[in-house]
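The instructor's notes for this session suggest beginning with a concrete chain rather than abstract definitions. Hand out the sequence below and ask the class to guess, before any prediction is shown, which regions might be ordered.
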Amino acid sequence: MTEHDPTANSALRVTSEQRQGLLELGWNDALEADFLRLASPDTRPARVASVERGGFFVVENAAAIDAPTLARLEGTELDSTAQPAVGDWVALVVREGTPGITEVLPRKSALLRRASGRQGRAQVVVCNLDYLFIVTAIGYDLNLGRLERYLIGSLAAGIAPVIVINKTDREHERNAIDALIEELGVDVPVLFTCALEPGGIDALSPYLTSGTSVALVGSSGVGKSTIANSILQTDRLATGDVRHTDDRGRHTTTRRELWRAPGGALIIDTPGMREFGLWDAREGVARLFPEIHAASESCHFRDCTHVDEPGCGLLAALADGTIDDDRYARYLRALEELAETEALAAESTERLNARRERGKQNKLRTRKGSRRKHWDR
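After discussion, reveal the predicted structure:
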């Protein structure tokens, strides 16, 4: 990224009219300062509303959110996590009638997960959020391990998590649900909703203020799109039934999309995720298990695995009952998964660097061969 003189054309680059439209999309002074520092004078700010293989759909004001502009990425190839994602703020330029993205502004937050398969790479789910609605539902999906994964990802990204337990019209035991939430061991808001009933999502209102960005994540069939439709007061997002045998839902949402609610909140619906693999989330693990992380800080060895090493502060706390056995086991599982992911990422980076080096060598040999042929003639 290149920096430009913020005093040169700042009045021309973000007019009061542009700013008003951007404010309704979540724009603020910090974003404007980044834009004036990084973007060139012929660009203007926009927000990514959705992403497809053909390009990026961006909006420059809330009035155009139902008809976003298709733009392509200009310049050098970016790493997968640096590519524009839904919720990103970008610098947009139009050349000969074709919009292009020249810069991705620094992110306030980015929810990452490990991409499927064993390629050892990250996937950006969504960016620049104020709240993450972790949606689950009464029934099979209400699962401690699943909630912990989303919480770890959210806390690692610096996004405030909100647990939304939907379909409260189903028969359930509130005491059992309260006990499950208590096992999480962190103080996060837990809201109960029934999106199909009038007033069934009223509990979400405090988190849906004007200019606030919120994404809904969770498994297929938990009611994310139904909740989003209720917030948006529309039926534009497709919804579907679930199997009664196991609560499995079909993928009615096929891509992440940014919408603006009548009250001014920015809502991002996401496709159901069968799994949420952890990525670069050690900070999230530490925040979800604060008492265990604190005990591990007193370990004798810096690379302690907390299994059988002498002088392990965590094992000492486990022995005297300070730490719960189940939470200790879940903490270790999270660290083991992150260690495996980090090893795969290192292998993937090594293979990528090797391919790039081979490409450079091939280009060099081609140029040398061309020069020899020229002089031979």
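Then share the key points. The two ends are 44 Å apart (CA to CA). The first helix runs from residue 10 to 13.
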